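[Automated response] Your request has been received and processed.

Submitted sequence:
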Amino acid sequence: MRRMSAGSGYQYLLRSVAAGDGNRVLSTPLPRYYSEVGTPPGRWLGSGVGAFGAGQLRPGMQVSEEQLALLVGMGRDPITGEQLGRAYPSYKRLSDRIDERVAALDPEMTQEDCAAETTRIEAEETAAGMRRAVAGFDLTFSVPKSVSVLWGVADAVTQERIVAAHHAAVADVIALFEREVAATRAGISDADGAVAQVDVAGVAAVAYDHFDSRAGDPQLHTHVVVANKVLTVMDGRWRSLDGRPVFASRTGLSAHYDALLADRLSHDLGIEWELRQRGPDRNPRWEIAGVTDDLITEFSSRTREIELKKDELIAEYVARHGRMPSARTIVELRAQATLATRPPKEVRSLADLTDGWRHRAAKRLGTEPTGWSQSVIGRDGDHLTAEDVPLAAIEAIGAEVVAAVAVKRAVWTHWNLMAEAAKQTMDLRFATTEDREAVLGLVVDAAQARSVVLTPPELAVSPVRFQREDGTSRFRPRHGEKYSSIAVLEAEGRLLARAEKVTAPTVSVGVAGRACGNGKVSLTDQQRRAVESICRSGRQVDLLVGPAGAGKTTTMRALRAVWSGEHGWGSVVGLAPSAAAAQALGDDLGVACENTSKWLHEYDRGRTELRRGQLVIVDEATLADTVTLDRLTGIAAGAGAKILLVGDPHQLQSVDAGGAFALLVDRRADVPELREIHRFANEWEKEASLALSRGDVQVISTYGRHNRIRDGLTDEMLDAAYVAWRADCGAGRASILVTESARDVRALNERARAERLLFEGAVDHREVDLVDGCRASVGDVVITRQNDRRVRTLLGGWVKNGDRWLITDIRRDGSILVKRLDGRGGRTVLPPEYVAEHVDLGYAVTAHRAQGVTVDTAHVVVTASTTRENLYVSMTRGRVSNIAYVALDQPDDSHSTPEADDVTARTVLYGVLQHSGADLSATQTIEAEYELHGGIDRLAAELETIAAEAQHDRFTDLLGRSGLTAEQHAAVVTSPAFGPLTAALRRAEAYHHDLERLLPRVVGRHGLDDADDIAAVLRYRVDKVTATPPRGCRLCPRLIAGLIPEPLGPMSAEDRQAIDQRKELIESRARGLAEEAVISGEAWARRLRRDHRGAWDDAAMTVAAYRDRYKITSDLPVGGGAKNDAQRADRQRALSSLRAARSESPVQRPATPAAVDLPAIPAP
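Generated structure:
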């Protein structure tokens, strides 16, 4: 899925989606389906198209270029050309904003001050500059590869039937998208935007079919561009789609599409399906029975491109030399073909493409492919209805869904459950979409019933106007609840309890002190204090935290010596989540170490155990899942042993349900922590790496100033990173090449191998096939991807996942002789079946493979999808240099690259630093959810949104009697500024202004005939007149928590109850925050003078409410400034409350209404 901007995103839509990467000029109508070059005509999709014009458009009708330009390009009605809601905003380019502010700096500033101020400006503008007008969302629906292959070689009738099934499945998913996902937001905004999620009248989308990949292989897929303009049911206004559920639903909708397509193809064409394994690190995939992997491979890799180029080079060789090249020379020619520039996508008609595909398939199949395709279809099968699936089966599948999701996540959502439910029911074929969706809904309901809801219940009632048909509040996003399981919560609870217990073995003070100071292991003061703390704490579960390069290994080595000195040899046990990490830990500590899963396997079979007095060190503990840590700590506690978890919460986390290590660190105030960095040769990089781990955006400027950032298109960055890495290796430096995309890892690996063969020459003609069609020969570096203890090395080790090897010989049976590259040595023979399934080229690696590695230099390819943790790990591997190669585009295998529009290395890196891939634990998620839904910013936004609706008619009536003409009154009520005007009136009334007298005075002050927006003018006048209380009024303003104007005047009992409950919740939370700040001695609370207890309490509550509403973290009571007019007004109220608290003159306060009996929202 792509979010498409109104600028470059629309141009990408025209060039790559609507025109199919062709160079032709778009015209109306678009080209014909089969005979013309490019994509078939686009078609309208979604029920929302009927809202345009006078309802002339219907789903399925053809889209013209002019209509596309109006709707997606300009946000206008594609029929009338009228603006739909607000026009797309335009923004200054980021670089221009930075340049303007830097140019305005005082020229008398010192160079150091100027650099610091420039860094601050760059960080601020980068954060502000990430906003771009969104024109739409590009949802891509791709059929499974076997379907593309069958469609590509079948006869025309079968092709049309497959496309029809694909179109029907896409339409069904869009219908579900309209029912369950599409919404917009209205009301007052909190920190996350407008607070109410309201219904829309469908969506308008444009669908374009595409046939092939960039390599010219069959790849049937459809781009559905959902316009970001939707009609709000509530008030008939055009607004933007709420993007949160659009992105949250991606995996669920994708899995549902796969299942619907399978149903359609089975029902309409008689196709059968089978689940196929796809090797390590790849999920199994359902494919058509009868379409073999061999045939799929013919149409799904670069192998064919390379082979075609190799054939060209062989032909050239024969023309030059008059003979065929030797087998060894052919290997070298294939390497040359691998390096050949990847050709641009050739735009051809479907008829031409099909002819080529059938010709290639015929060679593989040994028969005519259209006839073969008939043998794949036409099979009988059973198709279920919803009534055929018993409730017991529903419950069983629901249990399997929760079990499967809980393996990978500590916290999940509705869409996670839906995606897994679609996968779990993929083996069932249903008669209709309605049947599948009915069963799917029941399975998801059953899974939710088996889950624990972490999101708090609605804390206050919502009026019926703010409720959905199912009774849920529109102040909560649909399907926005977070879930976990009792097992996960209990496991986290046990870990927290064990971390508090101090019954574990210790090392006496004298022994620890002598061991730390005996000179055998040189320690810094921080390392020495960490060792002493761990030895003396007695905690059952202890922690050692340190960033990359802080000397955790040295500290653990000293700890082993200290512990063994008192508790004897064998009293220290080393564990790690992976076999490779366990091997590295064992080498560092000099003790036998094991990976956690293997140790638990042996423990369960009675082949290993722990004993009293032992210290169990678990290294890289962030990579351990919660269940594993719970089991290990429980076993250790039962045996009287101590567990030490070592890691960095900012590094990569477990691929399974995790977050436990970060939870334990967060809960403990005195964690032994190493902060001094020793790895880097450059002093500046030590502090910069810590800033990188925190996500501090100012560090982008630091890396930029030291020339550590490159930027360009993806292919350029891959090339630059590769060339620099190759140069470092050639100069004898230990270097690592890191990228996240599996496609890019493969491309870099193939290039490295090809250049090695060209520069060094092939030893002989022998090659072996590896995973995904890659090849290797003697001299290549490979990586093993599965633990296999049966394959032993000559030095007594065994083959581990992540080990890198050098091939020294290839045997006739396909086995290979390899030598380990990590310095430990060791040779072994990898069996042919292992080579084919679990060995890959090992020149480039991912961040997960890089964690724990230390080299001289690191070259890191960074994309918009990189996470902060991946960036931090990758950019801290090199002692001497770490360079980021930032890709400014987001290419894919099917289309040309969209051009960057105000995208820079700075904006990409800012997005990366904001994108944390770390999952919160279930316990922390509960707190975060309560903080989100019970925060004053959210409650205040809800209260003011309800008030605006409740008082709408009253304020409309007051304005009607204020002296406005009927025409002016109508303009005010329909103006976008009507809401801000009524908010200003609410504030005025809270400050005891009489609105009956105020409004006529404001309206009559000056003429309004020349006003562009009368409501905006009136709002300005009201704010100006009511900036001070009415003359002679000494009453306190009627403000909730001293901050939020209390809605007054007549309203329904339902609205009054909703407002009063939120008022009580706000004031209760503000009091709790203020009390907690005083008790804990927070810096801002210490700055307040407590001259008068009552007034001081009121002031502290107001300041606490202000800080919570605007997320102030400064030590100053109200922070250093405000971001907008609303915050400035609230800041002034908070400051006024402080001044009032310092005044000796008492202030008369109005009577306080009876409080609603609701629970306070505690501050976590």
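Summary generated for your ticket: Confidence is low (pLDDT under 50) at residues 20-35, 896-900, 1144-1164. Residues 493 and 923 are 8 Å apart (CA to CA).
If you did not submit this request, please reply to this message.
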